[in-house]
Description:
By secondary structure, the chain is mainly alpha-helical. The protein has a domain at 57-111: Orthogonal Bundle (Multidrug-efflux Transporter Regulator, Chain: A, Domain 2). It has helices spanning 2-11, 25-34, 42-47, 64-71, 75-83, 100-109, and strands at 61-63, 90-92, 95-99. Strands 1-3-2 form a 3-stranded antiparallel sheet. Strand 2 (90-92) and strand 3 (95-99) form a beta hairpin.
Amino acid sequence: MSETKSKASESEDPVEIELVVKMSPSALLGLRHALAGVPQSAADCAQEPPRGSESTGPDPWLDNKEAAAYLGLSLNTIYKYASQKRLAYRKLGGRLAFRKSALDDFIQQQIHPARRCAGGQDLVDEASVPPPGTSGQ
């Protein structure tokens, strides 16, 4: 008899159940935030790439900690630059992610040429700089 039940349960379609829960708006917001990264169905799980797979490929996405380490900045600075729109980012489920190429562009934007005098001359003439280890006289 138990064999019949197991065969019947395997062939049955899943049953969909609707659940109604009453909660305050702040509790609902907290629940949404907590469930932001959770797939809604088995189909979403099948389509979602495994964690960490985004960091492969020609232009990977880096999370905030990876981006901070890559740029040599603190997490607070990464958040500040993102809020100031100095760094291009995406936000999914409350998490920031940065393209490695966008971080490389940011680094290139931070390179400033050496200053020159109004006449186009270098600020310090190389001939006037004494070689190391000499007194300059």
